Structure to design on (278 residues):
């Protein structure tokens, strides 16, 4: 496995005529990331995993400076997982000058849910992902469903900008309690980690209610928010949306309108997100 730090070094390492699959990450890897690498290994000839903590997607009060950086361990995991190239550029390699040009998703998708809770987040995500696509020039890229809204935003960007890249989704990997694996889970103490599984449990109960025939969406969302609040969470949102575009479902959704329940909130000082397709 090669570790490459610059675009100049990356280009000749990517052999022409072979299918390149990219797995974009911010490092601090876990089994969820490695599942993305396995999918990339199955679908491509050259697997490139990028490790880059993107400052453009962090607000001033968020954890950019303290985000866990575990590069040596990440490389060991990637080497064992079948990765061919780790692309780990410095900030100055990705942003050699102030980034005046950015990619802004449409507000009906980019300014709701995560975009409302974290203004500017998806502009930062789209901008860095487009830059990584231009640097690596993959035929395909793998994104996890845990970041459900991000997956839809990236798909829309690729479609509307006519990028010749296949976006491959990967199922969320969970621990035995149901907690979705996340790099930020490392911030949780033992008691918080046990409680964190309740986010998925709240979504599971929502799914049961919807499958039983309930369509009073706002009441369902409010009940889930209250159930988390009484347990000490500070929820940002719990929402039932259409899988295709994250818009609110119709009063009587059909089988052709599959739904997804999404939630985000703080437990202590850690912000967690999750979702469940219904």
């Amino acid at each position: 496995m090669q570790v490459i730090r610059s675009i100049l070094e990356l280009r000749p390492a990517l052999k022409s005529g072979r299918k390149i699959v990219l797995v974009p990450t911010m490092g601090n890897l876990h089994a969820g990331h490695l599942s993305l690498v396995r999918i990339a290994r199955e679908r491509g000839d050259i697997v490139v995993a990028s490790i880059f903590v993107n400052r453009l997607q962090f607000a001033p009060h968020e954890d950019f400076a303290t985000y866990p950086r575990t590069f040596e361990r990440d490389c060991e995991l990637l080497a064992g997982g079948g990765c061919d190239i780790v692309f780990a550029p410095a900030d100055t390699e990705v942003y050699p000058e102030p980034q005046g040009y950015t990619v802004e998703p449409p507000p009906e998708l980019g300014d709701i849910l995560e975009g409302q809770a974290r203004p500017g987040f998806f502009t930062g995500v789209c901008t860095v992902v487009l830059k990584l696509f231009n640097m690596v020039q993959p035929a395909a890229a793998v994104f996890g469903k845990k970041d459900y809204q991000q997956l839809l935003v990236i798909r829309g960007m690729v479609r509307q900008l006519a990028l010749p890249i296949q976006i491959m989704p990967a199922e969320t990997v969970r621990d035995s309690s149901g907690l979705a694996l996340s790099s930020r889970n490392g911030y949780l103490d033992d008691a918080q980690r046990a409680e964190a599984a309740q986010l998925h449990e709240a979504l599971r109960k929502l799914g049961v209610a919807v499958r039983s025939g309930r369509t009073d969406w706002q009441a369902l969302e409010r009940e889930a928010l209250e159930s988390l609040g009484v347990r000490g969470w500070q929820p940002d949102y719990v929402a039932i949306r259409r899988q295709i575009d994250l818009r609110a479902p119709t009063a009587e959704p059909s089988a052709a309108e599959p739904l997804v329940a999404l939630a985000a909130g703080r437990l202590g000082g850690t912000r967690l997100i999750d979702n469940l397709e219904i």
